[in-house]
Amino acid sequence: MCRWAAYIGEQVFLEQIVTAPCHSLIAQSHHALEAKTPTNGDGFGVAWYGERPQPGLYRDILPAWSDPNLKSICKQIRSGLFLAHVRASTGGATSRANCHPFVFDRWSFMHNGQIGEFERLRRKLEASISDTLYEHLEGTTDSELLFLMMIQEGLDEDPRGAAQRAVGRVLAEARNAGINPHLRMTAAFSDGERLYAVRYTSDAIAPTLYLAHTSRNGHCLVSEPLDREVQRWETVSPGSFVTATADDVTVAPFEIRMPQTVAA
Question: What is the pTM of this model?
Answer without folding.
Answer: 0.94
